[in-house]
Amino acid sequence: xxxxxRLSRVVRANLNDLVSKAEDPEKVxxxxxxxxxxDLVQVxxxxxxxxxxxxxxxxRYSQDLSExxxxxxxxxxxxxxxxxSLAREALVRKKTHAETAATLKQQLDQQAVQVETLxxxxxxLESKISxxxxxxxxxxxxxxxxxxxxxxxxxxxxxxxxxxxxxxERMEAKVLDMEARSQAVGELGSYGIEQQFAQLExxxxxxxxxxxxxxxxxxxxxxxxxxxxxxxxxxxxxxxVDAELEELRKQLDNL
Length: 255
Known about the structure:
Elements: H1 3-22, H2 25-80, H3 84-158, H4 161-189, H5 191-218, H6 236-254
Protein name: Phage shock protein A, PspA
Keywords: Coiled coil
Family: Belongs to the PspA/Vipp/IM30 family.
């Protein structure tokens, strides 16, 4: 393959690609309907011309047929008058018009077929144009829907989903952190009074017990009943307990 052939193919391929990309379905379909409408006008004009020509042929055929009949009647008249030469001339004229009429009859039959064919083509073209208009509207609607969907998909494709989700996750973590800090601040705000009352409530039992022990030691409260001492002498274990009790008493007196 020569260089010019290859270059020509590349140029044509690029041109075809440019044309294909530049084609707008709506505009192309509208132009197609317009072209079909122009074809319809031409077909109608052709049908009208064919019918007009058929009418003229019919008129000429009728005239020649009438002339042939007329000269036949004249030939009869000439023979009845004994003028054979005039009758022969009349028959010659009749033959000429009859032959012309026969030719026109053949032409008229052909024209009738052509007119009928053109009429069928006209009806078929009108039907195709009507169908094309309906299909055009449907295709244009589908093209617009496809274009809108393509734009939506392009927009969605251009969005960084992972980055967006990461941003949402960061903001969610930040909101959770803000909520935790807000809750902590609230708890700290109410900690003072609540804690003080809790300490008082938890410490009241100890203070009461301490006061009772002091009263017992000073003799203001009824001492707790101790089990009766055994007649046996104190054991070394009892001595140790007494010493611990004495030490406890000293500690209470120092309070």
